[in-house]
Amino acid sequence: MMADIILSLILLGSLIGLAWPFLLYPLILRALPTKGEHPVAGPTPTASLLFCAYNEGAAMPEKLDNLAMLKGRYPGLEIWAFDDGSSDDTAAQIMARGDLVSLVRGPGRSGKAHGMKQLAARARGDVLIFTDANVLLDGEAVERLLARYADPAVGGVLGSLHYLGDGESATAAVGSLYWRIEEMLKDEESRTGNVLGADGSIFSIRRDLYPDFPDTVLDDLTVSMAVVFAGRRLVKAKDVIARERLVAARGDEYRRKVRIAARAWHTHGHLRPQLRRMGALDRFKYASRKMVRWFGALFLLSGGLAAMALAWRIAPWLALALLAAGGGAVLAGVLMRRGPLAAIVDIVIAYVATLQGVARAMRGNTFAVWNPAKSR
């Protein structure tokens, strides 16, 4: 009897751990009061747009056209790019548009964090806008982003990322669903105070808040969290739209998640002293949206083992039947590119990749450089 209770508690705890960041945490956020913004009349701040690139030759024509469109709509926009030792024609394409983009070339592979620091040191805009080489911004993005800085309490503003190509594979579909949930969580976090961290697709901060940090950390998280640590608000603008193509291949997505998780855990260690000084609500948000997810594979494993043990105690044949059904579903999902079984496999793969990345970071390994996904 006691064993049944323990196993049931393990199963329940595992289910709560899996559901917390995607179901329970959003419900709690929705119950919290809204924290409004208080704009003050004044001049629109100047802006510098920064991005790093490595072997993005295929994406550069569309990226440069997009930047030209933004510059035409916002003539005062300063644009900087860092080439991280590309072996294709990325740097040549950017140099050919020297009237539009100022290029800094790295000595070789030094990583995005290093590159962004080089650009931030050269930028002169009141607001630094960070984006990725393969991301396209809507025409109104710069104007709408800067408008949120009319509130002097706002130190950083995120945009909204819309993914393209979600019907190309189960991997892309799962990635799209995950990101829609992520965008919804950021909206609710912003409404109730601070968003707890940005991704690199589109975010901005006041230039005087840009921090110092080592090249090995996740610069998007480190830079955006500097706003919160400074006592300013990090908010999200839903009407600032960035667009990016999804990764369609499982191998590409697995490697990407391992790299991001390893850098995120390493960054967590770097930021830990400042994280401990945050307010209670921000610490709760950070743990709920980030830390719980890092260990999702452990919740999945412990819950699965507890369920199997409970089934075995009821009847051994039931446990064997569940094991056979689960194994068959996983095999079918691995062989398929689309459909619910393929999506379930991709969710499990995402959990495993994230935990592997965290484990690598715990052993002292991290990633300073990156490679564009071939299936994007």
UniProtKB/TrEMBL annotation:
Residues 48-210 form the Glycosyltransferase 2-like domain. The keyword Glycosyltransferase applies. The chain crosses the membrane at residues 6-28, 291-311, 317-336, 343-362. Keywords: Glycosyltransferase, Membrane, Transferase, Transmembrane, Transmembrane helix. GO terms for molecular function: glycosyltransferase activity. Belongs to the glycosyltransferase 2 family. This is Glycosyltransferase involved in cell wall biosynthesis.
